[in-house]
Amino acid sequence: MTQNAILPKNRAPNTLSVCMIVKDEENHLGDCLKSVQSFADQIVVVDTGSTDGTVKIADSYGATVVQSDWRNDFSYSRNISLDHATSRWILWLDADDRVPPAEVEKFKKLKTAPPDRAFYMKIRNVRPGGFGEQWFQLRMFPNHPKVRFERKVHEQIGFAVKRLGLTIFKVDVRIDHVGYEHPEMHRKKALRNREILLTDLSHYRDDPTYVSSLGDSYFITEEFDEAIKWYKEVLNIPQSQHKQPDIYRQIPTSIALSYQRMDDFPNALDWVEKSLATQPEKLDSMFIGAEIKEKMGDLLGAIEFYERIVQAPRIHTTYATNHEGLKAKALVCLGKIYKELNRTDQAERVYRSCMKKYPSVLNAYSELGELLLKQGKFQEAIELFNRSLEFFRGGDIKTYLGLARGLISMGKFQEAVKVLEEGRQFFPNQLAGKTINQTGKIGTI
């Protein structure tokens, strides 16, 4: 297919429009626009009724600001932003997205690509410790009037891209997502989305993404029986596996997690095994299995799952998974189980492995420090606790108590008192009244 068959002739080559919809995003929008200003040739912001300083911020970055009413239809609003785009390429963002500085040159290069393609990019939720879910999402595509978002909620651009015959590429380009919602706000949005989904359900009964979104809305509101019902509906949709393979493969994990939240461990494990039968390296399924085995007292079964997680390769799909976070958690959990089983050497091995691979995981330092204290390795334990505090002052209470105990064991009582005093600033309730008694141990006044 030639470029002219795809792209209208009035789009300047090597240009890109960043298109967004916003409402009351003054806390996020500025940082988002700052991150794209060096490669965006146009910024289009559709405001759906902000009452804060959102519009003023958009104006300050030279954005084309379009005022629109909110119609409970995300595609309607997003398509307004596309209607005002004038560049050859379009990149859609949300206000809490950020383009990291290291990715800017990649976007500049993508602008020079032939306009017969569209690009999936890595989206990463930025969470404490450097972890967060990652997935691929279709974010950049040519500016063509037939490429428009579809569906009122959980809007999709991919259907139009495929109908137009564009070649789809997954590229090593990352966008960070930094916004996190209070659980109650998350719940309210789930209820809002559910109302929209149910209203349009008759048109999308055979759509795996749509039906699974209904299941997700019930999961968020902790109505797990209903969530499981809708998740199972996805499996019964004709050709579901071929229509949306990533969604289809995620459903057994979602069902397992729902049963786990209901404390129905046998059913949860059954769905974990169904998931792993077709996807033996699926980390989130393995982690559910590990947690359940550990709760049921099957520590050897838990170890088997955790070890598999540590060794599994990283696989990214269009479904969000916190790969590195799960691997780090698995190492910490392994260490705790090995300690419980008095397998000290193995516990030390996995804690050290965790510190090497994931140096910001504070639990590894405090847990290994406690292990070394019991072995009489006071100086090494003290060094570990101090390294933990170098990463994050006020990290966890175990660090302060462990460091104080280590210093006491070395006869450094005044230093131990200062450690407890500092810890009390961050953990006033837990360390209230804690002091060093006459026997040289930490006690309560």
Q: Tell me about the largest β-sheet.
A: 8 strands, mixed
Order of helices and strands: HEHEHEHEEHEEHEHHHHHHHHHHHHHHEE
* Helix proportion range: 40-55%
Number of helical segments with 4 or more residues: 20
Strand order of the largest sheet: 3-2-1-4-7-6-8-5
- The average pLDDT is 92
Number of domains as seen in the coordinates: 3
CATH hierarchy: architecture of the largest domain: Alpha-Beta Complex
Number of β-strand runs: 10
The CATH H-level superfamily of the largest domain is Spore Coat Polysaccharide Biosynthesis Protein SpsA, Chain A
Overall outline: globular
- The first-level CATH class name of the largest domain: Alpha Beta
Strand content range: 5-15%
**CATH-assigned fold name of the largest domain:** Spore Coat Polysaccharide Biosynthesis Protein SpsA, Chain A
Class by SSE composition: alpha/beta
Give the uncertain stretches in residue-range form: none
Calculate the terminal CA-CA distance, rounded to whole Å.
Answer: 80 Å
- What is the CA-atom radius of gyration, in angstroms? 26 Å
